[in-house]
Write a structure and sequence with these properties.
This protein is an alpha+beta fold. It has 2 domains: about 20-245, Alpha-Beta Complex (paralog of FGE (formylglycine-generating enzyme)), CATH 3.90.1580.10; about 250-370, no CATH class. It is built from 11 helices and 7 strands. It has helices at about 5-25, 55-60, 75, 105-110, 120-130, 250-270, 280-295, 300-310, 325-345, 350-360, 365-370; strands spanning about 30-35, 45, 185-190, 200-205, 220-225, 230-235, 235-240. A 4-stranded mixed beta sheet has the order 5-4-3-6. A 3-stranded antiparallel beta sheet has the order 1-2-7. The chain starts with a helix and ends with a helix.
């Protein structure tokens, strides 16, 4: 018996070790869960919880350009943080998911914490939690007492909606909370790059507003990239091997300059048709620039000044009297300057213009030889 005792101890310890390995919590990284590779998707980490009001407040405290009073309406919409009083979220909701945040703002937060927004494929794989072809993250059982959903009444406020604190319900098999209900979550992808109604991005998971069908894993919806809702929040991912998507500063610069271009075209058309007096055109163009960039229209003089400083011989003598030539160049300069502006928001205007000059020197051919906006 004495010779069998060490063997039995070994078997018991081995069995215990297997059980510990089998039932130990998922591999995590700074509040995230490792989602294993599979279904053509590389392994990645996902936030255990949706981003909360308290977490988002830390973001805007350190990035004033995203505060409620400072953020550009052209990038965040009219309802951005509408339930907040200044830079403070609604009382008692520190651990509730942040809502009324546009895709641009969500992407900026994700980059600030060194993460990204999930692709639809990543989101769905994570939400299913190993359960294939099931309606919900927990299976096919009805969502009663498993999620925050179907809470809308005619008296419901979208400024301060009936969200629940993150983690109020049981997690799925990966250890992720609120993958159904509470708030819908922004995904990385655009709905359609050629959508005539504007740029939309996907959302998944359903919210407190939706019925039981609306919070099913496979359900998809979309919303304008520069708008927000009281039903919509987000969580972040950290990919282990996939390349990062376009940086939000470059994306916002492209978005803003494209909007200026389209609105300039509309203003010129209104003048050509007599809908707008020619004398009012400059004021209208200045209004367009201010709305999309936060800068007065006269700032274009600074952009032209820098262009003249770095232009090759002869370019500085170009006539800018032709509106087509002038505004095509202005729009290219705005796009390049806005990249600097959004990337280096903490710097003053003089510092930004210096960085703009460096970048303009590196890209002068693109500015001069481009075929327009």
């Amino acid at each position: 018996m004495r010779t069998l005792t060490p063997i039995l101890y070994g078997l018991v310890l081995g069995t215990m070790l297997i059980l510990v390995m089998k039932f130990s919590p998922p591999d995590t990284s700074d509040g995230m869960v490792l989602i294993p590779a599979g279904d053509g998707i590389d392994a990645f980490y996902m936030d255990v919880y949706e981003v909360t009001n308290a977490e988002y407040k830390r973001f805007i405290d350190e990035n004033p350009q995203w505060q409620k009073a400072e953020a550009l309406t052209s990038l965040v919409g009219d309802t951005y943080l509408s339930g907040w009083k200044g830079n403070m979220y609604p009382k008692g909701k520190a651990n509730h998911p942040v809502v009324n945040v546009s895709w641009f703002a969500a992407k900026a937060y994700a980059e600030w914490v060194g993460k990204g927004l999930p692709t639809e494929a990543q989101w769905e794989k994570a939400a299913r939690g190993t359960l294939v072809e099931r309606k919900y993250p927990w299976g096919n059982a009805k969502p009663h007492k498993r999620a925050n959903y179907n809470r809308y009444t005619p008296r419901t406020s979208f400024r301060n909606p009936p969200t629940k604190a993150v983690g109020s319900y049981a997690p799925n098999r990966y250890g992720l909370y609120d993958m159904a209900g509470n708030v819908e979550e922004w995904c990385l992808e655009r709905l359609d790059v050629d959508d005539i109604h504007g740029r939309y991005h996907r959302m998944r998971g359903g919210s407190w507003f939706d019925d039981a069908t609306g919070i099913q894993v496979a359900r998809r919806s979309q919303h304008p990239v520069n708008d927000s809702m009281g039903t919509l929040g987000f969580r972040c991912v950290l990919s282990k091997t996939e390349p990062k998507s376009m940086e939000v500063a470059i994306d916002m610069a492209a978005w803003s300059s494209d909007k200026i271009c389209g609105q300039f075209d509309s203003a010129f058309y209104s003048v050509s048709k007599g809908y707008t007096a020619d004398a009012d055109l400059d004021a209208k163009l200045s209004e367009i620039v201010m709305y999309n960039t936060g800068y007065p229209g006269t700032f274009e003089k600074e952009l032209i000044r820098v262009l003249r400083e770095v232009s090759p011989e002869g370019i500085g003598d170009l006539s800018y009297e032709d509106p087509i030539i002038y505004y095509d160049i202005i729009l290219r300069l705005w796009r390049l300057y806005l990249e600097v502006h959004f990337e280096h928001s903490e710097k003053n205007i003089s510092e930004k213009l210096h960085l703009f000059k460096v970048r303009l020197t590196e890209n002068i051919d693109d500015i001069i030889l481009s075929d327009g906006c």
